[in-house]
Specification:
mainly alpha; 5 helices
Length: 91
């Protein structure tokens, strides 16, 4: 699944290293749900992965919500930040 910034005709920001954060968020999203999930480009553009992430239990809800933001500049900056959020939510 392509992150929002790579879907033709969208303006969600520059394609950079945060693509990896988005993809890690999608992978962990599936782990948290316990099943494989596929999103259409339309669902990705609408922010459906992030909406579902908000319904998950901690620590997934907060961390994945930030990793799956459509706008690149509002997304987590690094995989380390994702890891930190996942770990700090346990405390």
């Amino acid at each position: 699944m392509a992150p929002p910034e790579l879907i033709p005709g969208t303006h969600f920001g520059p394609a950079d290293h945060r693509i990896d954060v988005y993809h890690a968020g999608l992978l962990l999203h599936q782990v948290a749900l316990g099943k494989e999930v596929q999103f259409t480009p339309e669902q990705i553009m609408e922010g459906r992965p992030r909406e579902i992430a908000l319904t998950l239990r901690p620590p997934f809800s907060g961390a994945l919500e930030k990793a799956l933001r459509r706008h690149v500049l509002e997304r987590m900056q690094s995989a380390k930040e994702l890891w930190t959020d996942l770990n700090s939510s346990h405390r």
